[in-house]
Task: structure prediction
Amino acid sequence: MPEGDTLARTAAGLRPYLLGRSVTGARARLPGPQVNRVVGSTITGVDALGKNLLIRFDNGLEIRTHLRMNGTWHRYRPGEAWRRPASRARLVLEVPGAVAVCFDAPVVELFEQRAEALHPSLSQLGPDLLDPAFDAGEALRRLRLPSRARTSIAEALLDQRALAGVGNIWKNETLFAERVNPFVAVEALDDATLQRLVATARRLLAAAAGRSRPSRLNVYRRTGRPCPRCGTSIASVQQGSELPRTTYWCPNCQGGR
Result:
């Protein structure tokens, strides 16, 4: 699933071609939102928020896409052949000189910008790790909520209501970098450790967002390969009750299950 760094790069790649331009055409795969309502308006924002891409228009409307596992955004010149079949396009936005196509995204929504604060998903998001105004204190407060006390730290880092932007890649890499056992409960960690985890997650996401090539990974998808620190074989297991994800860790550097 694309994580916060991928969405930040996507927004940065689309912004020069969309921002400030008038929409000359818009269509979504049916059944879908009536995106023709943005035709004639000017795009005023192309931003990533956690794992969401938000496109705002001067008529007060906003489009949200969430890519989940398979979604992706492409940008083409008018008349240029698409690299994926048109049948997989969920949303198409046309502006002078460019066509932006969102393929395979399961979530494409159109709503009033003024309703963003009440949006069932966006309003619940924790602080965005890539936001220049990121509130580390608020992230710590959310991690410390009683409802998360007995949650494993690996699951807590994935909870977008605690902090937004971390997916399975950076969950694993953050815990490895800080030598924290993925299976330990949040309540068993002191504030200093949680603060380090938040800071490291932010640093890793920011570094990845600024790279054009994939980041070098230490544990993610490296089951059975030697730990780059101690040489112990990297282990992996499905973890989580609501949405199980594969956790990768070093049993020596981070401890056993």
About this structure: Helices lie at 4-18, 136-143, 153-158, 168-177, 191-209. The radius of gyration is 20 Å. The chain has two domains: 4-124, 136-218. The mean pLDDT is 95.
